[in-house]
Amino acid sequence: MSEWTGKVALVTGGTSGIGREAALLFAQQGARVVVAGRREQEGKATVDLIRRADGEGLFVKTDVSRLSDVRELVDKTVAAFGGLDCAFNNAGTEGHWTSIIEQTEEEWDSTIDINLKGTWLCLKFEMQQMLKQGRPGAIVNNSSVAGFIGSRGTATYSASKHGVLGLTKAAALEGARMGIRVNAVCPAVIETDMSERLFGEPEARKMSLGLHPIGRFGTALEVAEAVLWMCSSAAGFMTGQSLVLDGGFLAGPNIG
Question: In Å, how far are 18, 75, 202 from 71, measured between CA atoms?
Fold first, then answer.
């Protein structure tokens, strides 16, 4: 029997890409999975895939930037499945990439609200619930290689992802004595709808591929498998850490 049998996993941004793969992987291992996202049709499609694999799933329409939505998400998770054992705070946006001097306040607010405030709100209510239960829990936040570096035109996105790493460390310290582990996963470019929007044009794709010494982009499943491991007992001594999945991106310039 899998250690996930009967456990409850919550995945935000589970309507596509990394979130969908993570939700499916948790379900395939025996967890009951709550999928959250703003796009109802895509979220229900993820749950349909879970059920086709003989798993249990529930979709809750959620805007993670709204406190009331996130509180209701956790409440509905508990009402449906009786508790919460692990969470993958994956919901995020690339926002609008432009220079600092051209960035609008509205664009800044939108990106920060989803990527940073949304992660904080999820941590707030997930940790509250895990504390009530009095049993160990695990949370993984989705940051990025942009949480470690800056690049021209990505100031707001980079700031949000740097912030996610700070939140992760603080939450890990607060949860450590209470049995709650909090870590972050930091992907480089992954083959998703987001990367297609950003790097779909041939020249942009060629440039971005050149930053990955391994010679390809990552897959959503590769990130999902890392998240599952970080939430598992195999990573029981890991908290406050950032797991980089980047094909060599951060190792240095690819001059080979």
Answer: 23, 6, 42
Active-site amino acid positions: 157
- CA–CA distance, 156 with 164 (Å, rounded to integer): 13
Residue 246, helix vs strand vs coil: coil
At residue 217, the pLDDT reads: 86
DSSP string, 19-44: HHHHHHHHHHTT-EEEEEES-HHHHH
What string of DSSP letters covers 112-163? HIIIIIHHHHHHHHHHHHHHHHTS-EEEEEE--GGGT---TT-HHHHHHHHH
Is residue 14 within 8 A of residue 80, CB to CB? The reply is no
d(Cα 125, Cα 68) in Å, to the nearest integer? Answer: 10
The string of pLDDT tens digits covering residues 198-240 is: 665 777 677 777 788 899 989 999 999 999 999 999 999 999 9
Q: Is 95 exposed, middle or buried (0-12, 13-18, 19+ CB in 10 A)?
A: buried
Q: How far apart are CA 198 and CA 45, in angstroms?
A: 24
- What's the first-to-final CA gap in the chain, in angstroms? 46
Q: What is the pTM assigned to this prediction?
A: 0.94
Of the candidates 188, 206, 197, which has an alpha carbon nearest to the alpha carbon of residue 251?
Answer: 188
Q: Where are the beta strands (DSSP E) in 146-226?
A: 180-187
